[in-house]
Design goal:
18 strands; alpha/beta; 8-stranded parallel sheet; TIM Barrel; 14 helices; globular
């Protein structure tokens, strides 16, 4: 049995900060002891990691990724192999990706297809949500079976008519089923029917550049859909998790629901916290790099998102990592913004960007760990094994250098995409060493992990509702 000792670091969890040594045995956290204490001095180990002057934090939990995701006639450029390796470089040790139901087919068929894509390929642990694209009697029954097997969350779309869209009746039925089986409904909240009208009108008026992607997907149509999803969830008696919240008005809808004590939760993403419509309007076709849905908003929306993270009206920061190369993929939309594949790369950047927010005083160190590690683990039934550093938890640990500086760039990132959404941005803080279930996968900025180390993790139901 290999024993590893991580010594002398400032251990930061969502609950506390303390200078402690962390003893790892058989892939688990065996014990914590105050640095220099008689207990910690008595520990022996096969290998010792010196974390003096560094933070020791839980491995990140990114609850929203799309590896090998089909969209707009192409597929996202990161495979489960390349994407999970990039995640490890960025201090994330668990991802929850999205399996997709094909219309007219069983949920099981979609889930099996994603298992086949991921099995034996991942460098870190992984789980799945299920995208429901065809709500009917058979798929409603399948939801119960999947929850029993540890696949406990289901995503629906109020956007993309004719592709992934569900109408209000289908959404209500899925929510009613989730209310009975303990599943959590995740919602892409945009009024896709209205957006499609605005898209057609823009194109007919010759407005084809990437910036119009943001202009037609109005903030009010995100807010309207968020409000409608909340009311449907109230009727169904179901909890609700709204993904990739980008607009101030949508945050206000979530805050109002939570003020009523409703089990309504929200996620935002780094792109909405650090990027804006200024990026969509970059000259030439450069703005295509920043096309995602929900879209980037004017910079003034960012204050509401940061405030929501501080007040817990938003609980989670995930990436919605769905990369498409600029060359050959984003370029499919030259002359027609509606054909630009929707999605940004970011799985490698999330922990560092959020630490930059700590440096800038936007959030505290413990809140950093809460929104990036602990809250997503609890939200999606991965706690207590993931998202914290405590005896019995998986030894998913990151030794983080809070003083190192780096410049984010496609030249140095490990995501399988030909551009960085944060090209040239300097941040303070950098991942140094990463353990996944006790195995060192990043060793002082060298990748030492292996394809196939990552395990599929069945999940319990949302622990915010216990």
């Amino acid at each position: 049995m290999t024993r590893t000792l991580v010594k002398g670091g400032l251990v930061i969890t969502a609950a506390e900060e303390t200078y402690a040594d962390v003893l790892v045995e058989d892939g688990k956290v065996a014990a914590l002891g105050a640095t220099g204490s008689s207990v910690a001095r008595g520990w022996t180990a096969d290998r010792t990691i010196d974390a003096a002057g560094k933070y020791v934090v839980p491995g990140g939990v990114d609850a929203h990724t799309h590896f090998e995701f089909p969209f707009g006639g192409t597929s996202s450029s990161d495979t489960f192999e390349t994407g999970t390796r990039a995640a490890a470089w960025g201090g994330t040790t668990t991802v929850v990706d999205f399996a997709v139901q094909t219309r007219g087919r069983a949920l099981r068929e979609g889930l099996d297809a994603w298992h086949a894509k991921a099995a034996g390929k991942c460098a870190i642990d992984y789980a799945f949500h299920m995208i429901l694209s065809d709500v009917n009697e058979d798929t409603l029954k399948e939801m119960d079976l999947l929850v029993d097997e540890g696949m406990t969350s289901f995503k629906l779309f109020m956007a993309y008519p004719g592709v992934l869209y569900s109408d209000d009746g289908q959404i209500l039925r899925a929510m009613q089923r989730a209310a009975g089986n303990g599943g959590l409904i995740m919602m892409h909240a945009e009024n896709g029917i209205a957006i499609d009208v605005l898209v057609r009108q823009a194109l007919e008026a010759g407005k084809t550049d990437p910036r119009y992607h943001g202009e037609v997907r109005r903030a009010l149509l995100e807010a309207e859909a968020t409000h409608r999803a909340i009311q449907l969830a109230r009727v169904a008696g179901s909890p609700l998790y709204v993904v990739h919240v980008s607009a101030e008005e949508a945050v206000a809808e979530l805050a109002a629901a939570r003020d009523k004590g409703l089990p309504v939760f929200g996620e935002t993403c780094p792109q909405y916290l650090f990027l804006s419509t200024d990026n969509l309007a970059e000259p030439g076709f450069e703005g295509a790099k920043y096309v995602c849905s929900t879209p980037l908003r004017p910079r003034e929306h960012q204050a509401a998102l940061w405030r929501g993270l501080r007040t817990d009206d938003l609980q989670v920061v995930s990436t919605d990592h769905c990369p498409f190369c600029f060359s050959g993929q984003k370029e499919l939309g030259r002359g027609d913004f509606s054909k630009i594949p929707n999605g940004l790369p970011g799985v490698e950047n999330r922990m560092d960007l959020l630490h930059q927010a700590v440096v800038e005083g936007r959030i505290s160190r413990r809140r950093w760990i809460e929104i990036a590690c602990a809250a997503p683990a609890r939200m999606f039934g991965l706690a207590p094994h993931k998202g914290t550093i405590a005896p019995g938890a998986d030894a998913d640990l990151v030794v983080y250098d809070p003083r190192a500086t780096q410049v984010l760039s496609a030249a140095t990132h490990h995501m399988n995409v030909d551009y960085s959404a944060y090209e040239g941005k300097e941040v303070t803080g950098r991942v140094e060493t990463v353990l996944s279930r006790g195995e060192i996968v990043i060793d002082e900025r060298r990748f030492t992990g292996r394809t196939g180390h990552g395990r599929y993790v069945p999940r319990s139901t949302c622990q915010y509702l216990a």
